[in-house]
Write a structure and sequence with these properties.
The structure holds two protein chains of two kinds. Chain A is globular. By secondary structure, chain A is mostly beta strands. In chain A, strands 2, 4, 5, 6, 9, 10 and 11 form a seven-stranded mixed sheet that branches. Chain A has a four-stranded antiparallel sheet with strand order 1-3-8-7, with no helix packed on it. Chain A is built from no helices and eleven strands. In chain A, strand 4 (33-38) and strand 5 form a beta hairpin. Chain A is 0% helix and 49% strand. Chain B is an all-beta fold. Chain B has no helices and eleven strands. Chain B has strands spanning 3-7, 11-12, 18-25, 34-41, 48-54, 59-61, 69-74, 79-84, 93-105, 108-116, 120-124. In chain B, the strands form two sheets. In chain B, strands 2, 4, 5, 6, 9, 10 and 11 form a seven-stranded mixed sheet that branches. A four-stranded antiparallel sheet of chain B has the order 1-3-8-7, with no helix packed on it. In chain B, strand 5 (48-54) and strand 6 (59-61) form a beta hairpin. Chain B is globular, with a radius of gyration of 14 Å. The N and C termini of chain B lie far apart (40 Å). The chains are: A mainly beta, B mainly beta.
């Protein structure tokens, strides 16, 4: 089974900071990766698909990169509404979906 | 406008079977390139992928839960049902259904969940 490891598990940052979250797959998953943002009590929201494609309606301060086993989600300039938990999801192979353990982004 | 909503019991006794229904609108599960998935989240914990059903009735399950899960679709009724047998308190979670979009990007066919239901909290307890 493919395992997804996110780092860091938590992160404190300030408004305006540039933040990078990493997701590593236990084997190559090509570009079969998406990123989600989840706020407390709410359903996840799609940010990025195919590793680097920005979902329609999502702010351009979010970007994704990577291929194979190493992926990053970057927020170029943190806004107050960006403080949330972020998850990656691989959709390459069995199981046909594995989430990372999440990265909680908190206000410093 | 795509919407999904989960429904089912809020409380289930251990060993009982849990049946959850995802009722959706704004798309058809008969359309090529469409799927509906189930994802759960125990309180304070991470998301866990459970199952996915495609427009062509292809079904995929989490290996660790495969023996206990069944996913079916009622195309005419715009519903997807997830059944989980032999429940345990560790199955206590918020259960989400989500619209899966299968697409080809840079020559690769992949899926992602672009619309989610609000989730339903299920507690397994005697």
């Amino acid at each position: 089974d493919i395992q997804m490891t996110q780092s860091p598990s938590s992160l404190s940052a300030s408004v305006g900071d540039r933040v990078t979250i990493t997701c590593r797959a236990s084997q190559s998953i090509s570009s079969y990766l998406s990123w989600y943002q989840q706020k407390p009590g709410k359903a996840p929201k799609l940010l990025i698909y195919a590793a680097s494609s920005l979902q329609s309606g999502v702010s351009s301060r979010f970007s994704g990169s990577g291929s194979g086993t190493d992926f990053t989600l970057t927020i170029s300039s943190l806004q107050p509404e960006d403080f949330a938990t972020y998850y990656c999801l691989q959709s390459y192979s069995t199981p046909l979906g594995t989430f990372g353990q999440g990265t909680k982004l908190e206000i410093k | 406008q795509i919407t999904l909503k989960e429904s089912g019991p809020t409380l289930v006794k251990p060993t009982q079977t849990l049946t959850l229904t995802c009722t959706f609108s704004g798309f058809s599960l008969s359309t090529s390139g469409v799927g509906v998935g189930w994802i759960r989240q125990p309180p304070g914990k991470a998301l866990e992928w459970l199952a996915l059903i495609y427009w062509n009735d292809d079904k995929r399950y989490s290996p660790s839960l495969k023996s206990r899960l069944t996913i079916t679709k009622d195309t005419s009724g715009n519903q997807v049902v997830l059944t989980m047998t032999n429940t345990d308190p560790v199955d206590t979670a918020t259960y989400y259904c989500a619209h899966g979009r299968i697409t080809t990007v840079r020559g690769e066919t992949l899926y992602y969940f672009d619309f989610w239901g609000q989730g339903t909290l299920v507690t397994v307890s005697s």
